[in-house]
Amino acid sequence: MNRLAKLCLFYLLCVQLILCLTIFSDPSLSNYQEKNSLPTTTEIRGVWLTNVASGVLFVPWGIDRAINQLSALNFNTIYPVVWNRGHTFYKSNTAKLFTGSDVDPFLNAVHGGQDVLRKLLKLAKSKGLTVIPWFEYGFMTPADSALAKRYPDWLTTGQQGEKTISEMLPEEINNEPTNKLAWLNPLHPEVREFILSLITEVVSNYDVDGIQVDDHFGMPVKFGYDSFTIDLYQKEHQGKSPPLDPLNPEWMSWRANKITEFMAEIYKAVKEIKPNIKISLSPNGKAFAYKNYLQDWETWVKRGLLDELIVQVYRSDQTSFLAELEAPSVKFAQTKIPVAIGISTGTLRNPVKIAQVQGQIEAVRDRQFFGMSFFYWESLWGYITPESPQKRRKVFRELFLAKAKRPLTIGRK
């Protein structure tokens, strides 16, 4: 093949590449330059990137495509999963030590051993996106995971030794996948050491803007009847055993306070490494979080253990959605730290109509919240959504017309 033929072939390949990139990106990106002259607002515009029912992390171009589209549509924050189902999604010496594997094996195979968190950070930072790694599964782990098998005494249990919620519920109402997972005991010192090591490892080794835990950072209220927790309770209660009623107020408060103490340890350790790192929490509403998972996040806010709160309000009924926004605990938190609202865009199989998403964004803005984050990437404008991807992107383009800065942590009162 002569030189001219080689050049022609190279040109054709370049054209094909450009066409492919165009197909997998927003078709009107060329219109975004004019937005730079518009006023800049202050608002969290985030999205969670998970490995559950989502392929964004498992195709070679997935991360690039997500970051390019989010940046083009003036999002400013991503919460990528780094801990899920007993595996890390970054190269972890801690995970290697305790589980024998330093990263999720499937992720590692897809990306040829490349550190995906480092790749994501490099791409996102070049686009001006804030990256706050998300420890999605908190204290949950599969009952057959390496972690659960190696350290069975780390697991908390129900009164009959149940290791999962599914063992406590009738089969006909037990349709939540997370019910089939075991729970690491947040009161156990070795569990705390393990979780804290994962968090500080990410903060120390990566150029992240913060870390986030969510509604799984607690303990199901029916748990706490393992031998370790019973012994600890007896030592602090003159030999008295925990109440048989898991909803006993004192028993709930005692366990919740222990989890709060651990959150204080995390806050202190992270701030000692990097004082400007944000500690973010994405919980359910206060009443649900406390009654079901002993997560007393209002106290966390009062004690100054959080820099950002993203309250999950995954409601299809607008009246219920608005009621959650008006909750006293949410209003209190707004006086202390930036509070945003988690909005559901649906699941891979059941995406939410864009009109509902739009109405909830407008309600959040009307009530002076510091923005919103969407659960999750795959249902923002995927190809199985009720409307076309182009139509859904058009709505976000109109709602996020100008770029926005993230809020600073406001002074605590």
Report what the structure shows.
It is a single chain. With 413 residues, this protein is of the alpha/beta class. It has one domain (39-146, 182-219, 253-404): Glycosidases (TIM Barrel, Alpha-Beta Barrel). The protein is 40% helix and 13% strand. The protein has helices spanning 3-23, 62-72, 93-99, 105-110, 116-126, 146-150, 189-205, 227-236, 249-273, 286-293, 297-302, 318-325, 328-334, 354-366, 389-399; strands at residues 41-42, 44-49, 77-80, 83-84, 87-88, 130-131, 140-142, 181-183, 210-214, 278-282, 308-312, 339-344, 371-375, 404-405. The strands form four sheets. Strands 6-3-2-13-12-11-10-9 form an eight-stranded parallel β-sheet. A hairpin with a 2-residue loop joins strand 4 and strand 5 (87-88). Helix 7 (189-205) runs parallel beside helix 9 (249-273).
Key terms:
eight-stranded parallel β-sheet, two-stranded parallel sheet, 14 strands, TIM Barrel, 15 helices, 413 residues, alpha/beta, disordered N terminus, single chain
Uncertain spans, ≥5 residues at pLDDT below 50? Answer: 1-39
Strand content: 5-15%
Oligomer: single chain
Distance between the termini: 74 Å
